Amino acid sequence: MNLKSRECVIVGGGQVALRKARLLASAHAKLVVIAPEICEELKNLEQVHAIYQREFRDDDIDNATLVVVTTNDTQLNRHVSKLAQQKNLPVNVVDNPALCSFITPSIVDRSPIVVAISSGGTAPVLARSLRARLESLVPPEYGQLAASMGKLRDQLKSKMPAEKDRRIFWEKIVNGPIAKKFLSGNSDNAIQQLQRAINSTEKSTNYTNHGSVALVGAGPGNPDLLTFRALRLMQSADIVLYDRLVSPEIVDLCRRDAERIYVGKQRNNHAVPQPKINQLLVELAQKGNAVVRLKGGDPFIFGRGGEEIEDLAEARISFEVVPGITAASGCSSYSGIPLTHRNYAQACVFVTGHLKGGTVNLNWQQLANANQTIVVYMGLEGLPIICRELINHGLESSTPAALIEQGTTPRQQVITSNLGNLSELVAERSVTAPTLMIIGGVVNLYEKLNWFSVTPNTD
Ligand SMILES: C[S@@+](CC[C@H](N)C(=O)[O-])C[C@H]1O[C@@H](n2cnc3c(N)ncnc32)[C@H](O)[C@@H]1O
Question: Which atom of ligand 1 lies closest to the CA of 378?
């Protein structure tokens, strides 16, 4: 709310009134204070325009833009609140949300950047504690960076008429060395560089033809496991293509205005066939879009990421690949089953258990090695075949094996057993994909090390 030179009436004259007066003064309001007793500091506040040391009168708020009430007199508080609301004036009665038509949030002030935190009047102490954390997180130089960007906006606008080009320009500034310079306190130099960057921007510069694709690993489902790079690209994308394994919480973190295209795949049922996805990426980038292709886990581990960027490379479109936490790492950590361990496994192999023509084609001889951990992706359907073949090729049926369902998410379930019994146990339960199998001695550690959710050992 723009309060500059507007009359703001504070009813009350104690310490709380003083706090509110300071806040309103920082917005350059014209302050009027009314109370039979008014503390000295408030009387001496420079921005106070008028002081009436007496009881409140109804016509005191006739010229007000906003009213704040800070008295201990509940009847008076209710009366002023009602009166203000009848006149359609915003009113705040301190510590009484029911009588307020607006509340004052805790703020982190890096003007012109202001972060407001509100608990809707329910837990102001919690809001203040969050504010304290943000205070330490947002360097004071943010204000100066914002102010400098504001001053140069019009200049850039005249050089770059397209809104999208300007957005790309500012994103590069904010994520690049000029912003770093500002934040490290070297603002004079940073302003010069910013000015130079704008001067060297030709009117004819057509950024729109320079689209790009980022193949981004979104991790195994838990949004906390995204990388900073992934998040940054997601928040500056024009278009996001995502599939079934990317959780809705993660898709929600993409730039609000980005177009979202679901290209979801389910086993044997490709919503958009792979060649079509590859082609779509090329077409969207050629139109000048910053495209993010979000993929579950890591794009280069059973993710067909290689195929997607092959077409981009052939079309000479600029691309990058952002690694993600693969399901094996996520499920291993969140189930407390290390993939290697000096006592159990000196090697670890990742295989796909995908069924093809009713069977799983793997080099069983090579896999049936007691000192290694086997991680099976996409193995739920083929689970009985996998367990049987490993036993047939020499692993003991007592070899520990675990199935991790929806790993790293709040819905994670872990079933531990052995090669001889796992498929039977799984068949008895209703298991929800995605699932990952870990086979080998390391599974013994689950009982001791599982920390994320307490699931009974069903062995
Ligand atoms: C097509 S692959 C994609 C793998 C992905 N690129 C990665 O690096 O994790 C899909 C398989 O990954 C495994 N998977 C992915 N996310 C999982 C999760 N949260 N929990 C268990 N398994 C998961 C399942 O085996 C699923 O069938």
Answer: 27
| CA 302 to ligand 1 centroid distance, Å | 8
pLDDT for res 265: 61
* Contacts of 316 by beta carbon, 8 Å cutoff, 6+ apart: none
pLDDT at 403 over 60: yes
Domain boundaries 210-325, CATH class? alpha beta
The pLDDT value recorded for residue 60 is 97
Q: Retrieve residue 371's tokens.
A: 């000192």
Peptide bond into 338 cis (omega under 30): no
Given this model, what pLDDT does residue 46 score?
Answer: 87
Pocket of ligand 1 (CB under 6 A): 220-221, 245, 295-298, 301-303, 326-327, 331, 377-378, 404, 406-408, 434-436
CATH topology of domain 328-449: 3.30.950
pLDDT at 206: 47
Pick the CATH number of 7-104 from 3.40.50.720, 3.10.20.310, 2.40.30.200, 1.10.287.3610: 3.40.50.720
Element holding 449 (H helix, E strand): helix 446-449
- CA-CA distance, 238 to 257, in Å (whole number)? 8
Split at pLDDT 50, 70, 90, the class of 458 is very low
Where do the structural domains in the chain lie, given as residue ranges?
Answer: 7-104, 141-207, 210-325, 328-449
**Is the model's pLDDT at 459 over the cut of 60?**
no
One-letter amino acid for residue 82 of the chain: K
* Helix H or strand E segment including 108: strand 106-110
Ligand 1, atom nearest to 412 Cα: 20
When mean pLDDT is compared across 87-101, 202-216, 392-406, the lowest value belongs to 202-216
Ligand 1 mean position, distance from CA 303 (Å): 9
Per-residue pLDDT reduced to its tens digit, 290-299: 899 999 999 9
